[in-house]
Write a structure and sequence with these properties.
Layout: H1 2-21, E1 32-36, H2 39-49, E2 53-57, H3 72-80, E3 83-86, H4 95-99, E4 108-111, H5 148-165, H6 170-196, E5 202-204, H7 212-217, E6 221-223, H8 237-250, E7 254-257, H9 264-273, E8 276-279, H10 288-292, H11 297-311
This protein binds zinc ion.
Zinc ion binds near residues 143, 208 and 210.
Length: about 325
Amino acid sequence: MRFCIIMIIAVLIVGAVGAGSAPTAPTAVEPLKIITTNFPLYDFTRRICREKAEVVLLLPPGAEAHSYRPTPRDVVRIHKADVFIYTGKYMEPWVEDMLQGVRDNNLIVVDTSQAVLPDLRGSEGQEPERHDQHVHHHAVDPHFWLDPVLAQKMVKYIAAATAGKDKKNREYYQKQAEAFCVELEQLDRTIRETLKHCKQRTVIYGGHFVFGYFSRQYNLEFVTPYKNFSPNAQPNPRNIARLIKIMKQLKTKVIFYEELVEPKVARAIAGETKAQMVLLHGAHNISRQEQQRQVTYLSIMYENLEKLKNGLDYQQ
Ligand SMILES: [Zn+2]
């Protein structure tokens, strides 16, 4: 009798394990679960996958991307996902540590900086350096998503990596990525065309050094009092004073400020120079209001271009 009970329990356990690990009948196809770290990756991935995947943006609305660190709950979500997409170690230095614990499962990890490796730039050779930049020489600029040409490489890379996890939809992802790249090409052409009509080439930026790749692609000069690629260290007063001097020399009427960070530096400079403060969006993340307005990478970039026209003296 006792043996019988043990046998029944054993059969039940084996049955339960069997049912969990190897379903015999095909069930409804579950969408792929993809976790992305910052807004451009989220926006690109949902364009590529549409209904084939459930794409999650790890950053809560309004969170500043550079100072973000994952909560234990975020780590659990990443462990349970099929694909994890991040910008690279210079944007998300916490990723390497976090992945130590997930090496053995089926998670596909996508480091999008690998898509643009030959294009990655250190702090040497940046044009604004000739004014006041003494940035750390080992720093690498992680803001490559703001260059629509590099964004296309990221999109293709994400599509290929996702198809590696979900082979039956390979062609679908590839087609979506191609269609999106056509829109990114259009964006690139529009920026070039528009900037041809701008008399100024110098953008005065009161935020951290975000537009390095963008300015190289479009032959602009971004001047910022910040020393590095993150908003976490405040610029020193001497750099701010130099920026004000440049603005007076150039008769600049607009100072741009960055998203999701209290624009104290830009406000102080605007107070001193009577310049107008205008948001130039680095797209790291979006606010709750922007989420409700359903902003996209493309809408942010086109809005930025309209504002640059104003700041760079656009003439028909
Ligand atoms: Zn940044």
